[in-house]
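Try this one yourself first.
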């Protein structure tokens, strides 16, 4: 610096810093290898590890600064980061779209839908997982692409500008791990949480096919952590408002030659619909019906139709006519038929004798099948499988199977429901037996005898 006489002066300070260093050494012998097991979200979550994280500093006595001692401290620290809290304050670039939305005089629910659709249409995810926006939000918005944080913080900013009560919700994606204790480093993802009419609506604009409360599969991992501008946090159940389901109605008839023909209709909702859309739009449409025919192992598919596949908040209804040339087994004057046909579960996915890790399904779901099948003329039922009703421990799931014959019509009902997406390892034997009984029941055959 220069003083009043134009001469250069320089101030300097020096200080002595004393510190102690702790070196920790961990040793363990004969560590068992991690086995590959099905239905494990992230095997690395179960690997032995030691993780250090800075929770506080105290450079001068009595001047302690905390970063991650509690969840509220985590919220405050994240909002103080210039790549998070400050990004949400610089929102002038959203002025024009905000005025356009106000001119539409939308309800809160309509605003949420419109704003989510606007950001999804305007911006494309670049594949980067992060809770911090490295670039300014206006830059990402202008170029039309960005990381998870740049897209969803822009979504949060626009929702807030339009008068909605919205907060960031921190998540750990499936391949990142599980944040079990107050942590800054345990999260790599952020979405929007809107409080509306007593509930929290979750939004993620990185997936073009997402909708309110229907998020991409990658985020359904443990729980979320909603953080407020005031530095208060709240745990969020990501699964509370979803009800993924597949409901199938099948009407068919068996000819005397053993050919099965019929109509198939299925309704897919929530994440079942979202996952179907991802699969459908990633395939060549000219080959889709052929692939469906191969998937169901039927001889012919006709009049294939999809309703609602482009309406991302709506369920999907899939329907077609089918023909199975060799749908039954014949032995003498008897016909053996599998009532569920191509809809049955052919094998038990759980084969190992023991299990290391909890069983993690993507999400709770239900599958309902109703079948009405006309029997061939000149035949009667000589043997029917017994109906059954099974349950998993801790009310984690149920399986119901009912079959009856009425005036030459076979009526079948199957209801499978998984109520919890994580099954503790101590219930593995029960789950394995549960699936075995389900497979056995679904593959039992009805015996028809010529009159």
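Now uncover the answer:
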């Amino acid at each position: 610096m220069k003083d009043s006489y134009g001469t250069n002066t320089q101030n300097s300070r020096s200080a002595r810093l004393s510190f102690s260093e702790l070196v920790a050494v961990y040793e363990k012998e004969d560590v068992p290898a991690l086995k590959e097991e099905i239905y494990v979200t992230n095997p690395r979550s179960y690997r032995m590890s030691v993780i250090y994280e800075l929770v506080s500093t105290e450079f001068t006595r009595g001047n302690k600064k905390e970063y991650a001692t509690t969840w509220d401290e985590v919220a405050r620290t994240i909002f103080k980061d210039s790549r998070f809290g400050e990004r949400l304050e610089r929102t002038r670039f959203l002025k024009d779209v905000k005025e356009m939305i106000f001119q539409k005089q939308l309800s809160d629910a309509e605003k949420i839908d419109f704003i989510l659709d606007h950001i999804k249409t305007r911006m494309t995810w670049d594949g980067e997982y992060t809770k911090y926006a490295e670039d300014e939000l206006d830059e990402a918005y202008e170029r039309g692409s960005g990381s998870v944080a740049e897209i969803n913080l822009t979504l949060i900013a626009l929702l807030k500008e339009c008068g909605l009560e919205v907060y960031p919700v921190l998540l750990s994606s499936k391949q990142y791990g599980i944040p079990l204790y107050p942590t800054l480093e345990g999260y790599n993802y952020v979405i929007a949480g809107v409080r509306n009419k007593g509930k929290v609506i979750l939004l993620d604009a990185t997936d073009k096919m997402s909708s309110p409360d229907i998020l991409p599969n990658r985020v359904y991992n443990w729980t979320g952590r909603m953080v407020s501008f005031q530095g208060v946090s709240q745990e969020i159940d990501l699964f509370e408002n979803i009800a993924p389901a597949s409901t199938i109605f099948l009407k068919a008839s068996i000819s005397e030659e053993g050919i099965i023909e019929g109509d198939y209709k299925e309704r897919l909702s929530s994440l079942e619909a979202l996952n179907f859309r991802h699969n459908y739009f990633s395939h060549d449409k000219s080959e889709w019906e052929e692939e469906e025919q191969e998937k169901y192992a039927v001889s012919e598919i006709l009049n294939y139709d999809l309703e609602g596949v482009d309406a991302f908040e709506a369920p999907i209804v899939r329907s077609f006519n089918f023909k199975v040339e060799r749908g039954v087994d014949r032995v003498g004057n008897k016909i053996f038929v599998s009532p569920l046909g191509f809809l049955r579960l052919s094998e038990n996915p759980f084969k190992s004798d023991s299990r290391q890790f909890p069983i993690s399904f993507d999400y709770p779901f239900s599958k309902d099948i109703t079948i009405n099948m006309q029997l061939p003329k000149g035949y009667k039922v000589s043997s029917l499988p017994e109906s059954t009703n099974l349950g998993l421990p801790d009310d984690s799931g149920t399986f119901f199977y009912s079959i009856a014959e009425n005036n030459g019509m076979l009526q079948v009902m199957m209801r499978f429901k998984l109520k919890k997406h994580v099954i503790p390892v101590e219930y593995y034997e029960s789950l394995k037996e549960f699936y075995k009984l389900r497979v056995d029941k679904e593959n039992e055959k009805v015996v028809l005898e010529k009159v």
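Discussion: The first strand starts at residue 56 and ends at 60. The domain at 245-450 is CATH 2.60.120.1130 (Jelly Rolls).
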